[in-house]
């Protein structure tokens, strides 16, 4: 066993979840998925494919019709994307892994904007690369900010890859257009690849320009097809398809052939019946995504207002993604606090330390729920916990 | 782009398949899958899971009931295997990749028995390890043999992993029990991990001992749970589930937790509806696997006899797996030959060079077909090609 693998932290979220094992009354907001199942019509498309016997290997890069559908969907949101720049992957995390395999030699340097979901920084460690962390920092109101100059200073000609996840899991922080432009210009000078995890691009709460679809700023709005840029997407979040393990990426055409080889050597291909559901979900997006956006906005507003009403809680409305990231006065050990909340109060939250030391002292609350009343009930439990544990009242 | 990734060969099989694009009359035997779809009742189990809304994340290591079913199935074939030694993976190739990620630091040495399907040796190259190839060699009748002394000499205390795929794709070569015992004893002395790709364990044509199920010799028959051994299985071949991307591995208990982390960082989990189908397929195995074994044995006998009747063809009946590996006198460039066969004669075979330089001059023919008449028709095309191209007759 390699020491670097032994040293990789296990999931602190899972550790908290285990503390709630055997309790049926836990309100769980710890994982990054909605409690809403995939819509029936999307599932029916996979059912039809299975019934038709589509149980054979598919092309490494995905079904041509799915690559075309992804290209069309992303072109509707950003600058035109050709299907020759698209690869279908067996999840967003797999897209991130094959891209890092393509780009990172052992010893290479990666700069990552943190806190961030742990997979993004574990992958370069697995590949023997060194990760330099540049921290977002919270303001007094709990909104997380990037120091752009600090990030630009950290990215040098020795930086092989800049890893950025915006809208960000866990903080909701979202890159502005001006920041993206500055980073792209800088990375063109240093020869650094930008690996942009944009799986939450449609989960944005800033209002769009008139006539534009609601979508966070993307590097695909400003980059040329041949820029050193790979953008990763997933069907998990905007299409309520976490369990399907379907993702995709947009890369320069010259990289796609090599990514196809790496997909062969990692997972070979995504199941055809899963890909068919993806084609259908994209066709429904003009109807389904705005409805989901509306529901999540309502969840966000309910949850953040209720949390802000609690004494000692700091939380800002997230700009994007689907999490409230909050801090409770005097509580600095997020793992101990999260374990206590699940064990004593049946409230399941993710400890901020799961996202790196920069998140220590914070808690992540997934706000994606069919029923905002569930969120209110969770806040009631936090309030009750505060009364007997935090020593207030 | 890393030079090591640019240098990875693309699929030569795909290159041949492209030469047949636009021809609807090609008899394709190039890919490693049967032309038989997954049985209806297995597909129906996935359909029921989808209809029940099982569209959420699952445990990194797989559903407990699937891990238990795999442990039970393998325990029925080999020495007892506990579910704590089992991980469910998103394909056999993914199981091989995460295991090599766990074991191989950059610069480490791997010994691989070749020719072999290219994924197995591409993975260490991706991870920056060095691959030392030990070649099987064909006898005059076309049966491939291992020089055990040569392999044992090649595995030294510097060898981190021994990669072996038995029954072997493409040659059908199968390790004997005595060879396995010698290798295990030697690797215990050198501290070398054995990574054993046994996805064809049930596709074996040697008759079993009385009262035993038909199964190739496995390292799981002789090893202790804590031996440095990882055995990889797949649902693709014995259960006709290639397109589902479902595999599994058996490893020492102490490794499983770390493999779970690596699964999180590679693909996170296999879809629940796919795993449900896996549980069902294993329950049906006592009926379905012997029937498949019988059909493939008939395919093998038809194909090998017809090929052996052609002048200038060397081929031995494979001991295991689902390929005939053949050589045609005077034909040394397998890629050129395979391209010619598809373009001029509508016969789709895989070039031996796809499996390494040791396979050059040979062709791989997948014998898994619903209909042995299709195999005969293919042999007729090869015979016709021989008459106008090989200058015989």
TrEMBL record, chains A, B:
Its EC number is 2.6.1.-. GO terms for biological process: amino acid metabolic process. Its cofactor is pyridoxal 5'-phosphate. The keyword Transferase applies. Gene3D superfamilies: Type I PLP-dependent aspartate aminotransferase-like (Major domain). It is an enzyme of class 2 (transferase). Keywords: Aminotransferase, Pyridoxal phosphate, Transferase. The keyword Nucleotidyltransferase does not apply. GO terms for molecular function: pyridoxal phosphate binding; transaminase activity. Residues 32-382 form the Aminotransferase class I/classII large domain. Belongs to the class-I pyridoxal-phosphate-dependent aminotransferase family. PANTHER family: ASPARTATE AMINOTRANSFERASE. This is Aminotransferase. It comes from Sphaerotilus hippei.
